Amino acid sequence: MSNLLKDKVVIVTGAASGIGRSIAISAARHGARAVLVSDIAELPCEGGTPTTQEIDALGVTARFVKTDVSKKSEIDALVDAAEEFGGVDVMVANAGITARDDGADVSEESYRRVMSVNLDGTLFSAQAAARQMKAKGKEGSIVLMASMGGIVGAGMTVAYSTSKGGVVLMAKSLADALGPDGIRVNAVAPGTIDTHLLRTSPGIAEAAEGFRKRTPLRRLGKPSEIGDAVVWLGSDMSSYVTGIALVVDGGLLSVI
Ligand SMILES: NC(=O)c1ccc[n+]([C@@H]2O[C@H](COP(=O)([O-])OP(=O)(O)OC[C@H]3O[C@@H](n4cnc5c(N)ncnc54)[C@H](O)[C@@H]3O)[C@@H](O)[C@H]2O)c1
Fold this sequence. Notes:
Helix content is 43%, strand content 14%. The protein is an alpha/beta fold and 256 residues long. Nicotinamide-adenine-dinucleotide (NAD) is lined by residues 13-14, 16-20, 39-41, 45, 67-70, 94-97, 117, 145, 147, 190, 192-193, 195-198. Residues 13-14, 16-20, 39-41, 45, 67-70, 94-97, 117, 145, 147, 190, 192-193, 195-198 line the site of nicotinamide-adenine-dinucleotide (NAD).
C-alpha cells in the first residue's frame, strides 16, 4: 500500500482483536519488516483467523508473542523477542480493558485491574521499548492508546477514563523524557470505534448509538481508521510530532 513503515520493526500489544489487530495489519500493509503481535490470547475475541496469519498472507514476517501487559517481565520478554529482527522501531501500547462495574462505585478489584492493564501495561511497554531503542541508538516512535474517555470525563467510566487520562499525560511526560534521544511518544484518542470492546462494555455499548447520532460524520469509526493514524505517527512523516494526543473520533469531541 505504501512504504511509510519500510524496514521498521513494529510491536503491537492487544493485537489479536479489534483496533490492535487493525494496527498490526496496517503496519504490514505499509511496509513494516516484521510485526510482533502481542496479546493474552492468539485468537480474535470474535473468532476468525489469527492476526499473524493475515500478516503472513501479505508476505510480511509476523510473530505471535503471548503477553499479559500488566506483567513487566512479560513485556520485557516481548521486547527481547524483537532482537531477532534488529530491535523495535515502533511500539504501539494498545492493550486496554473496561470494567463491567465501572462508575462511581467501581469495585477495588475492577479498578486495580483497569489500572494494571491500561496504565501499568502502557508504561511498562513504553519503558521496555525506549530502553531497547536507546541501547541501539534508534530514533523510534512509541504510540500509546488513550481514548476520548481520557479527554472528557463520563460517570459510567470513572476507572476507565481515569486510566486513559493518565495515558494522555504519560505520552506528554515521556515525550519530554525521551525527546533528547530522538524517541517520539504520542497518544491516540479514538472516539467510538466498532469493536468487541465497544459492543460488550456495559454502559458504553448502550451509549454507542447516541454517540453515533451526535458524531458529525454520523457513523462509528472503523478499527482501520485508527490503524491509519498509528501508521502516520509511527512513520517519519510525523518526525516533528511528539507529546500529542491525536483525536480520531469523526468530530465527536468537537461538538459535545
Ligand atoms: N473501541 C473503542 O471505541 C475504543 C475507543 C477508545 C479507545 N479504545 C482503546 O483501544 C484499545 C483497543 O480496544 P479495542 O476496542 O480494540 O478492544 P478489544 O477488546 O476488541 O481488543 C483488546 C485486546 O486487548 C487484549 N488484552 C486485554 N487484556 C490484555 C492484557 N492484560 N495483556 C495483553 N492484551 C490484553 C484482548 O485480548 C484483546 O485482544 C484499548 O486500549 C481501548 O481502551 C477503544
